[in-house]
Amino acid sequence: MVITSEMVKNLRDLTGAGMMECKKALTESNGDIERAKQILRARGAAVAEKRAGRETKQGVVEAYIHAGGRIGAMVELNCETDFVARTPEFKQVARDIAMQIAAMNPVVVSREDLPEEFKAKQLQLFREEALAEGKPPQVVDKIAEGKMEKYYQEIVLLEQAFIKDPQVMIKDLINEITAKTGESISIRRFQRFELGVDGNK
Fold first, then answer.
1. Long-range contacts of 30-34 (CB under 8 A, 24+ apart)
2. Predicted model pTM
């Protein structure tokens, strides 16, 4: 299939990836835009993995206040250099993540932030639920683990589906900006506020 400049431009507009990366992904996917987006996402994850562990002491604190002023969120998004922290793309990702926090109310950044005893207790609750529903004992563990994965997608910020595009997880957004900038990017912390609700997180 012939990859036209219009197709490359279209993919670039959708993903923000470089022209050559878009062309390579389209060639690899035989012109299939959705498949090309997945290829770019996978490459972003590979770049992010290589960059993991690098110090991220620069970045921005971004806030989002929902219309009406009843819910708000703040997030600290880190990168390696002040140069990247000042780019519009980086600031937009930070804003999108703050909006995600306001809308979806995650509890932690990553599942590693959850105490082991909390995870064990929750898994046991899902096991007991499955048994109470009359599920055969040999499949109870599998059902509990499946429910645990779904639970992580609700409470763990990096594993939530992005509200602007449910096909993309928040960790995919981080991987994409990592691939674009060539820097290690991380969400350090966040806080969510809801009017009249104590213990916001």
1. 30/1, 31/1, 31/3, 31/7, 33/7
2. 0.70
